[in-house]
Amino acid sequence: MFSGLATAMVQNSALCGELEGATHVGTVGEPGEGAYVRIWLIAEDGRIRKASYSTHGCPSSALAAGMTVTLATGRTFAEATRLTAKDIDTVLGGLPPGKGQFADMAVAALNLAMENKR
Question: In angstroms, rounded to a whole number, what is the distance separating the alpha carbons of residues 57 and 17?
Fold first, then answer.
């Protein structure tokens, strides 16, 4: 179901966890109270230079969040706001049935991060 790129990306621990020096952060859901995605960004001149995520541990959520930060990195905010949950699902080769909300959460957390400068 998941592409080889997706599996390799999730195994890249550099994408997972709080990003030191983050200029922006966005969270959807509540850590410790169920499903959540938090995304940190380092942005300069309206361009995402580096990004990372944390989530509640579900593999589908980690894949969606990881792919979202991977696709957002290097893009301008204007470009990154055009990313959709469908884009994430397509690149991943499809999330399992009933797990599509994790792509929605990841994209929403990215959009919140771009709005919330630290």
Answer: 12
